[in-house]
């Protein structure tokens, strides 16, 4: 590859709106008549009937496979066998980030079309041509890259507004990392996740994503608490899903996600935290390493705190974390191939440890300043 090769990638079709699940059959039938549908029991209970009805209405035959909870190599292989038996032409991932990442891996191996129907706006997994693969115990293993993005991403905001607001907040945190990381990667002339440099479009999407979130995130969060769809809610679901997804993939990742991946190496209560919650903390750590001025840093802290996102060690369930454990996090974040190497500067583990501690220090100082208690 030449060093000036720019690459932008995206899903085949993106559909969003209240009640669009009723159109799933229409869109999926354009991809194939036989579907392997991956969804866990909780998701199926909430929205399975609406999806079944729509698929049946458009004569899509499908078999539901129960997703067992982890986006691991073993789970992907198990579901591939089911898809082979059924001769699935399309794989439907219905649920949260891990079910979606699993479905993408299954579709690639089956050489089938891939339809992604997220039931939360909690990560930017839906649109990308990659999966985050974890061990069966939930530790980050690797990114798995695919030959193409999903053929269809269909987002029913009427379903998403019924999910707990904590999921939306997590998606906002994942999406707020997008521009912080992409602009750092672009500054360093690093490659994006599509294996080239960012196009103007890739960069613009990341910047727009952040703008939408600072304008609408709190209003969307309130709408979600009341389980209603509003224009701000629609805007934030799009930012969390489409803008964040295209923005990170065709812009680039950097420190925030590497530090997130580092946190997955720890055991204990931190495993109760969502992807986005760990990313929120990692984003503030990167902002500190990026020498972000105080006023700007506080704008981020203010939004994270208003959304109940963890920016103190206590909130991240790491109140009693040892220096040795933080050093392990830092070493994992700086592993060869990690996106931390997309930053314009070289990092030593001790600098990452200090940045993690600094997140806690600055967040607590800010909370005291604005009269918030931990
Ligand atoms: Zn993420």
Automatic annotation (TrEMBL):
<comment type="pathway">
    <text>Polyol metabolism; glycerol fermentation; glycerone phosphate from glycerol (oxidative route): step 1/2.</text>
</comment>
<keyword id="KW-0479">Metal-binding</keyword>
<protein>
    <recommendedName>
        <fullName>Glycerol dehydrogenase</fullName>
        <ecNumber>1.1.1.6</ecNumber>
    </recommendedName>
</protein>
<keyword id="KW-0520">NAD</keyword>
<dbReference type="Pfam" id="PF00465">
    <property type="entry name" value="Fe-ADH"/>
</dbReference>
<feature type="domain" description="Alcohol dehydrogenase iron-type/glycerol dehydrogenase GldA">
    <location>
        <begin position="11"/>
        <end position="157"/>
    </location>
</feature>
<dbReference type="InterPro" id="IPR016205">
    <property type="entry name" value="Glycerol_DH"/>
</dbReference>
<keyword id="KW-0560">Oxidoreductase</keyword>
<dbReference type="InterPro" id="IPR001670">
    <property type="entry name" value="ADH_Fe/GldA"/>
</dbReference>
<comment type="similarity">
    <text>Belongs to the iron-containing alcohol dehydrogenase family.</text>
</comment>
<dbReference type="InterPro" id="IPR018211">
    <property type="entry name" value="ADH_Fe_CS"/>
</dbReference>
């Amino acid at each position: 590859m030449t060093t000036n090769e720019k690459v932008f990638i995206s899903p085949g079709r993106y559909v969003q709106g209240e009640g669009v699940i009723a159109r799933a059959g229409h869109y999926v039938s354009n991809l194939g008549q036989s579907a392997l549908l991956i969804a866990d029991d909780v998701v199926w209970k909430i929205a399975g009937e609406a999806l079944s009805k729509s698929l049946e209405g458009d004569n899509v035959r499908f078999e539901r496979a129960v997703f067992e909870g982890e986006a691991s190599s073993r789970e992907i292989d198990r579901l591939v066998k089911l898809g082979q038996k059924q001769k699935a032409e399309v794989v439907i991932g219905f649920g949260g980030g891990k079910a979606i990442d699993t479905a993408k891996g299954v579709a690639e191996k089956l050489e089938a079309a891939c339809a992604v129907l997220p039931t939360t706006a909690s990560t930017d997994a839906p649109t990308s041509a990659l999966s985050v693969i974890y061990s069966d115990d939930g530790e980050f293993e690797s990114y798995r890259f695919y030959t193409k993005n999903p053929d269809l991403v269909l987002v029913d905001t009427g379903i998403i507004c019924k999910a707990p607001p904590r999921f939306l907040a997590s998606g906002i945190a994942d999406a707020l990392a997008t521009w912080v990381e992409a602009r750092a990667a672009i500054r360093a002339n690093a490659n994006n996740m599509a294996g080239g440099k960012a196009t103007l479009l890739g960069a613009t999407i990341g910047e727009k994503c952040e703008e939408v979130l600072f304008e609408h995130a709190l209003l969307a969060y309130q709408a979600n608490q009341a389980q209603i769809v509003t224009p701000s809610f629609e805007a934030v679901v799009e930012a969390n899903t489409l803008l964040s997804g295209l923005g990170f993939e065709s812009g680039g990742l950097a420190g925030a996600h590497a530090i997130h991946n580092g946190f997955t190496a720890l055991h204990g209560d931190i495993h109760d935290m969502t992807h986005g919650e760990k990313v929120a903390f990692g984003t503030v750590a990167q902002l500190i390493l990026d020498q972000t001025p105080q006023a700007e840093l506080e704008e981020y802290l203010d939004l994270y705190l208003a959304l109940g996102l963890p920016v103190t060690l206590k909130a991240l369930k790491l109140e009693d974390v040892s220096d040795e454990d933080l050093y392990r996090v830092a070493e994992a974040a700086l592993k060869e191939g990690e996106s931390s190497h997309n930053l314009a500067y070289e990092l030593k583990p001790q600098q990452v440890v200090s940045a993690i501690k600094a997140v806690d220090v600055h967040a607590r100082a800010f909370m005291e300043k604005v009269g918030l208690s931990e």
